[in-house]
Design a protein that fits this description.
The complex is a heterodimer of chains A (350) and B (296).
Chain A lengths: L4 H4 E4 L4 E4 L1 H11 L1 H11 L1 H24 L22 H8 L3 H24 L1 H12 L3 H12 L6 H11 L11 H9 L4 H5 L6 H29 L3 H9 L4 H26 L6 H7 L5 H4 L2 H11 L3 H29 L6
Antiparallel strand pairs in A: 1-2
Helix pairs in contact in A: 3-4, 5-6, 5-18, 6-12, 6-17, 7-12, 8-12, 9-15, 12-14, 13-14, 14-18, 17-18
Chain B lengths: L6 H32 L3 H5 L13 H7 L2 H32 L7 H13 L4 H17 L5 H8 L4 H12 L3 H9 L4 H12 L1 H17 L2 H6 L8 H14 L12 H32 L6
Helix pairs in contact in B: 1-14, 3-14, 4-7, 4-8, 4-11, 4-13, 8-11, 9-10, 11-14, 13-14
The chains are: A mainly alpha (350), B mainly alpha (296).
């Protein structure tokens, strides 16, 4: 923007000279005494700032102070000394984890790979399900029938992770066909999808079955609830669009293809980007509750790796270094996803 | 005028009804099975004869649990944490969101970033653990010996919920606030008399989110609460399950119920209160996801 002299000077007829305009005097004053004005404004609205304080303190104490503890990643682990007094060890923990070449490094890479695979499968199989459900809900014209279906499918979302995993553990429990075996294992063995020995030793003790169990229980838990967003987008479509398509001779599939899908595409894109953004923030609680020593091969993710070494074990530095790498990559994904969402549509996620 | 259904439409209808029914039943089945297994007789459960309906009905597994003081203890701890945790979280979230929604707040961008950054980056389990250990020491030093209070005060903050509230407050027309101020309302009165009633449904939704996360909280409660008398329900259930899988014959051989039934009874008891209030809160729960698409 080009600034003109008249913006900050006025011509004084009496003296025939320019002098500073009073508005500019105020602006100069504000600039000169910036902090004074800040103080005055805070004094005037002190109630607002008072209201802000509890929230800021809570987040400072229990979200930002832990970040200070992250210094431990770069320092020699010590149980006794506080992190501020420990000796620096540079990037040795990161080096050890990334290119250590020993068992620990192999375990870290396994955890990293499992994190990616679990969330990638979760995305591939878990993401389309709510959309399909929403399309089906739309087919049911009776309101009562639809609410019944919806209420039933939201139901698992209300269970806590502990209760959900307890149910899963019980349903695929080990035991013989005649005693103690979980009902789902029994069913699968009878249908012939899994052999009886596998069912007898317990599906959760078998590394091959951890991922399917994790993904399927995830779909079971949240597909119904996640379909709400898509269903809301579908019912927002004006009925005239369908009518127009019908008059043009469109059958059901053509209506799906040319009316419904384009209308909910933006919702799908946004939800997809959000999902990709939180790809690495895998629910460690659920993994922790479902895995055991037999299934570390496929089940161990970075957070559980950190939990095992840092909380149960004493390798605090190594554990927080591992998780920090995961979280930094995760943060870059979130920021990238948000930027793309902002470009793709006018909706910003945060 | 009724249009005749086309063949493709009919096929799609049939497919969607069938698959939906299957999925809905799959959602319901584990609950029904858990109830049946909890009240079935011992041999029926142990020999895997229960498919849907209970056999040789007994209520001893439930009785055994109801006679367990630890169970009631865990229940009351969960109610304690849920109630006070939700009230505390709502307190600072509403005040903070109200301040953030005001355009005249200085450094507003910075405060927003301060919140949003916690959604992008978390320090991780280990640093958080060390932080909570320090907090616990400080709490003990100032005389708060109950670890329950640590769970209530130091855990369960969610930046997303504050942003939902902030957006709702920003949606209130400023003319209403000005009118209230002209009528002599103070800042605090504007909040309680104007903003809170106008954003009732968002506040209910956020309260529900906080409440559910408190009710379900497990990991940190287990890490930080050392006294088993203070364990909330989720920790109690998990410990029972672990105990049970470690030593399977824990129920003893002369009981009328199988050891599985006790676990199922526990699961049923933790779900039932939620099922009872479910119809009342369901509409807020459904609303929550729709306000999720947020503007800056």
């Amino acid at each position: 923007m080009k600034s003109k002299a008249a913006d900050f000077l006025i011509y004084d007829e009496a003296t025939g000279r320019y002098r500073e305009s009073p508005e500019q005097a105020v602006r100069d004053d504000v600039e000169k005494h910036y902090w004074l004005h800040v103080g005055r404004s805070i004094l005037k609205d002190w109630r607002l700032y008072l209201m802000l304080i509890p929230m800021l303190l809570v987040f400072l104490f229990w979200r930002y102070f832990p970040m200070y503890e992250l210094l431990g990643c770069f320092k020699v682990s010590d149980e006794v000394l506080p992190v501020s007094e420990q000796l620096f060890s540079g990037f040795s923990y990161f080096k050890r984890l990334l290119i250590g070449g020993d068992d620990l490094s192999a375990e870290f890479w396994r955890a990293m790979r499992n994190t990616f695979i679990l969330s990638f499968y979760g995305l591939c199989f878990g993401f389309p399900m709510p959309i399909i459900l929403a399309l089906f809900f739309n087919e049911i014209k009776s309101n009562i029938a639809r609410s019944v279906y919806q209420v039933l499918t939201y139901l698992p979302k209300f269970m806590s992770t502990v209760v959900m995993t307890s149910l899963v553990v019980m349903l695929v429990k080990q035991g013989s066909l005649t005693s103690g075996m979980g009902i789902v294992s029994q069913f699968l063995a009878k249908v012939g999808w899994i052999s009886e020995e596998v069912a007898r030793s317990g599906l959760l003790n078998n590394p091959r079955f951890f991922r399917p169990i994790y993904i399927i229980s995830g779909i079971w838990e949240s597909a119904g609830y996640d379909s709400i967003v898509f269903f809301a987008a579908i019912i927002a479509i004006s009925p005239t669009s369908y009518e127009a398509a019908q008059i043009d001779g469109a059958g059901k599939w053509a209506q799906m293809r040319y009316v419904v899908l384009p209308s909910i595409l933006s919702t799908i894109v946004i939800m997809l980007i959000t999902r990709i953004g939180s790809l690495l923030n895998i629910g460690y609680e659920k993994v922790l509750l479902l895995y055991n020593t037999n299934t570390y091969v496929t089940a161990d993710v970075v957070s559980t790796f950190a939990q095992r070494y840092g909380l149960a074990g004493a390798a605090k530095g190594i554990a927080s270094a591992a998780e920090m790498m995961n979280n930094v990559v995760g943060m870059l994904l979130v920021i990238g996803a948000n930027t793309i969402a902002r470009k793709a549509s006018d909706v910003s996620l945060y | 005028m009724k249009r005749k259904l086309e063949v493709s439409e009919l096929i799609f209808k049939i497919i969607s009804y069938t698959l939906l029914t299957i999925f809905a039943l799959a959602c319901l089945y584990p609950f029904v099975y858990a109830i049946s297994a909890a009240i079935s007789g011992r041999t029926a459960v142990e020999y895997g004869q229960i498919v849907l309906f209970p056999k040789n009905i007994q209520f001893d597994a439930f009785k055994r649990m109801f006679n367990d003081n630890m169970f009631w203890n865990a229940y009351s701890n969960t109610l304690f944490v849920t109630f006070y945790g939700t009230v505390w979280a709502l307190f600072y979230s509403i005040l903070g969101a109200y301040a953030l929604s005001k355009k005249r707040l200085l450094f507003r961008k910075f405060f927003n970033f301060f919140l949003v950054f916690t959604m992008w980056f978390a320090a991780g389990i280990v640093p958080q653990y060390l932080n909570y250990l320090d907090t616990k020491q400080i709490f003990n030093a100032i005389g708060i010996m109950d670890d329950k209070w640590l769970v209530v005060i130091a855990m369960g903050m969610a930046a997303m919920n504050i942003i939902l509230l902030r957006n709702a407050f920003e949606g209130v027309p400023s003319e209403i606030e000005e009118a209230a101020i002209v009528d002599g309302a103070s800042e605090f009165q504007v909040l309680t008399k104007v903003y809170l009633p106008m954003c009732k449904s968002t506040i209910a939704t956020v309260a529900l989110f906080f409440g559910i996360s408190r009710w379900n909280g497990y990991f940190w409660a287990r890490q930080m609460i050392s006294n088993s008398n203070e364990h909330p329900l989720q920790v109690f259930i998990r410990l029972r399950l672990e105990e049970f899988t470690d030593a399977e014959a824990m129920a003893g051989w002369n009981q009328p119920y199988a050891s599985d039934s006790v676990i199922y009874a526990l699961i049923v008891c933790s779900i039932v209160p939620i099922l009872i209030i479910y119809p009342f809160i369901q509409k807020y729960f459904a609303k929550g996801t729709n306000v999720g698409g947020v503007k800056e």
